[in-house]
């Protein structure tokens, strides 16, 4: 793990908190004005979620099951071989092993999962690491505006930093009290509760911070670049 792998845990946590607060100040206004938090006419039904949007976005059907959707390949990554690279427009690129990832601050959260194929699974309990804490570890340069996330299956997806840095965006290893199943992206996937779920890479292996935007796998094939569920923003 880089940098400062021998620093005391308390010092590492202090640095992450300080860097996260710096990022929060830099992107807070943009985050607060994103459609999933500030849309005056959101499309959907049901009681408001914690961001004030209707719980179920337009054209979604709630399911208790968790359908499996992917590119048809479920990578099998032994934990002793697993690594996550975080690089690009950052001050301190890192390559984390599994033990390094678990040593980072762990977050418990409950959020909803909205798939572009019109189903939603509500109130999923997750455990993982906030994307914001990973960003704080590497410290994005002032030039960074977007990220591209890559999976071990060859998948890629892009999102803006104001979306990625929201506190409910996690890289999760546990769902519903169990290790994340391989078919759902285990051992680690990203979740984006305020965007359609294709914006969170399964089997994630690399996060590239970018100066500008590029399209990912589905975005190149006609899916929305922004993916806002409460605007029914599925395709470009």
TrEMBL record:
Source domain of life: Bacteria
Transmembrane portions of the chain: none
PANTHER family in the cross-refs: OXIDOREDUCTASE MOLYBDOPTERIN-BINDING DOMAIN-CONTAINING PROTEIN, PROTEIN-METHIONINE-SULFOXIDE REDUCTASE
Name of protein: Sulfite oxidase-like oxidoreductase
Region ranges (Disordered): 29-58
Span of domain Oxidoreductase molybdopterin-binding: 74-218
Organism taxonomic ancestry: Bacteria, Pseudomonadati, Bacteroidota, Cytophagia, Cytophagales
SUPFAM superfamilies xref list: Oxidoreductase molybdopterin-binding domain
Signal peptide per UniProt: none
């Amino acid at each position: 793990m880089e940098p400062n792998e021998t620093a005391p845990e308390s010092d590492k946590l202090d640095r992450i908190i300080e860097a996260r607060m710096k990022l929060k100040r830099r992107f807070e206004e943009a985050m607060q004005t994103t459609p999933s938090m500030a849309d005056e006419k959101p499309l959907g039904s049901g009681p408001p979620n914690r961001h004030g949007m209707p719980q179920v976005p337009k054209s979604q059907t709630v399911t208790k099951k968790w359908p499996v959707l992917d590119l048809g390949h479920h990578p099998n990554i032994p934990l002793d071989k697993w690594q996550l690279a975080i690089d690009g427009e950052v001050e301190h690129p890192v390559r984390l092993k599994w033990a390094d990832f678990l040593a980072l601050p762990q977050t418990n959260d409950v959020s909803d999962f909205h798939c572009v194929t019109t189903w939603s699974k509500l109130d999923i309990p997750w455990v993982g690491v906030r994307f914001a804490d990973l960003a704080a570890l590497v410290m994005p340069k002032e030039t960074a505006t977007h990220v591209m996330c890559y999976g071990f299956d060859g998948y890629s997806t892009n999102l803006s930093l104001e979306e990625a840095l929201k506190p409910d965006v996690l890289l999760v290893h546990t769902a519903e009290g169990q290790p994340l199943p391989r078919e759902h992206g285990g051992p680690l996937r990203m979740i984006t509760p305020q965007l359609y779920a294709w914006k969170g890479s399964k089997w994630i292996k690399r996060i590239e911070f970018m100066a500008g935007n590029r399209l990912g796998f589905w975005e190149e094939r006609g899916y929305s670049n922004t993916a806002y569920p409460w605007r029914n923003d599925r395709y470009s």
